[in-house]
Amino acid sequence: MITPADEEFLRRAIAIAAHAVTLGDAPYGSLLVGPDGAILAEAHNTVRRDDDISAHPELKLARWAARELDPDTAAGTTMYTSCQPCTMCAGGIARSGLGRVVYALATEQLVELNPASGTWPTVPQDGPALFDEARAPIDAFYRQDPVSAG
What we know:
This protein has 150 residues and is of the alpha+beta class. The protein contains seven helices and four strands; from the N terminus they run H-E-E-H-H-H-E-H-E-H-H.
């Protein structure tokens, strides 16, 4: 359920996205709000500027949260973002331990506004293969310290 406070933070994410455009960057913005309601960090898309396909604000903030927040704080933190996170960012968010994401535009709405947003090709994947060989480094790593691995 979206609350009035959520709407205010979403407006901030949209303002970050609008500011990104004035800098020549793509129109996507995000922020993290901690359990106490304070803004912890903000970011916008810098894919073009940084020549880095992973420079989405959601992934940058997920990486920040994973480095800077303890697990309990991360679990109580909400990411507000101008558009629904892509699958790359969603994976990073899940791994970071963030507790919630609130977004303004759904992916389908973004594609309606900008059809090129939905034209990513599907890359064929083949596998699994070489199980016994591939498992050797995995087994070796997780036998070292299963608590801190991963």
